[in-house]
Amino acid sequence: MKSHMIRNTGLFLLAAIFGAGLMFAFTELPRLADTWVQSHVSTPQTDPAWDGARIELFYEAYAVRLIGYTCLGLIVLCIVIGFTTRKTGWAAAGGIALFLPVFATFAHSMFFLAGLGLFNIILFPFLDISLALADLGKIVLVPYWILLWFFGLFHWHARAFITYVCMISGALIFVLGVFAWMRTRYSTEKVARNWIYRYSRHPQYLGWIIWSYGLMLYGPTINEMKKSWGWNGTLPWLLSTMVIIGICLIEEMRMKEKVGDSYESYRKQTPFMFPMPKFIRVILKAPARLILRKDRPEKRSEAGFVILGYTVLLIGLSLFWVDWAPEKRSMTAEIRPYSAECMDSLVTEIRKPQPRRSRTSEPFNELLCMGKEAYPALFELMQDNDPVVREFALQAACDGRVREAVPAMIQSLNDSVPRVVITAIRGLAEFRAKEAEAPLLDFLEHPRDGIRQHHVLNALVQMKCTCIKPWLEKQLEDSLWFNHTGALRSMTELDMEYAKPFIYASLNHSDPLVRRGAVNLLLETLPEDAVPHLETVLKDDDWEVRFYAGQAIRLIREKAGKDPG
Fold this sequence. Notes:
This protein is mostly helical and 565 residues long. Helices cover 64% and strands 0% of the residues.
């Protein structure tokens, strides 16, 4: 009895150490690996969501797209081999490889391919069509959203709690599964039936799925505000999980061949993954019955077809949540008959006190849909007592292309709330309102707290106001790199010939971020006389400066019809 207890204790400790080590490897090692990759592998500090041209040059120079397509092809080949042969290890390797882009969310960078972001190349066949396709697994977030809603009823934002519960419970289930499997290996039983195997036929896989679900939720929370690509890794998690479930089906066929009726009896008594009500099991099994015309697959090919069918179904359901980033709707296309009663109702709704985060632009848009007769109400809202209402009204006038709002926007430049003033400045820039030049220039002469100079300069650049050149030149002396590069961009938009000497001088700036900004401007504009200046930075210490300087030289020579070599 004592030796039996010692053996069980030892097996449990061994399972716990194995599980803890595995979970540690999949949480802490990604951070360390990300740091190492970012310090040793150079990639563009940008992403295709907002700077597709520059990252496309990187793709072409290093055949990144070909590598991505090849990697995904090899992964699919491994999975096919695993399902068409008895070597499920191939399918498992493919499933894990599909999961790798989830680790890209651990990257401590806002850039697409930085660090572990390189794993995103596996998704290239999808991303080449649209970045939105990375969300084709969003159906898997429905349980998470339901839990958030439920806890929200008690005013508890339980995001972190749900994430850690998934990871901890998944790890515990995995450890208990390993322990129960080890006990069976040291006994005379051929089928594991004890402990957690009484409630799940595949506890280790179940533990991995639940834990990896938490990991998928956890990754984007790291430096979330810094990331610009904005997906959760739902598609790779979904594909990886479906492969794992397929492996479970194949292993059950193998166990039935090996053990016979004993395993069939166990299978009838024990849930596949975890216990659930009968009506839910019936719903979940319905697609399989539709595909196979029977309760479960009995051949490897049938298992493959079932998994493929469920995957297509789940991806199809995910389409309801994919944001295809449609073009901003035209107000003129939605004009409705003017109604004083409807207008008064909308104004009343807009003026209801509510937090800024809860306010939307929808009622303002509905107001503008009634045409010019609704403009007086909009102009009145620009002078409302609530500064948030004033801000949203100004933004609505800009979005709705209400040129008649320019006088009200100029008046709003005297507002006491900086956010309202900045919104007015942006609106005036959008309309290229030359009549606003004088009050905007006054902001440069007499700065105000909360109104950054670059907002004013950007607006005046849009108005092609050449008298701001002294302020732009002064901004080049700013110690902050983004103010320096912002001034260079403004100079370029104002007058390229005027800007070129300052851009060329910035190629020798001590800050590599300023040098990157200068090279990027030359890459965008491709002036023919830039080649000698770009050649001076071909051996720059910064990889991005070197790389894009070389690309700019190549493109300038191609543009001029010369030999790019």
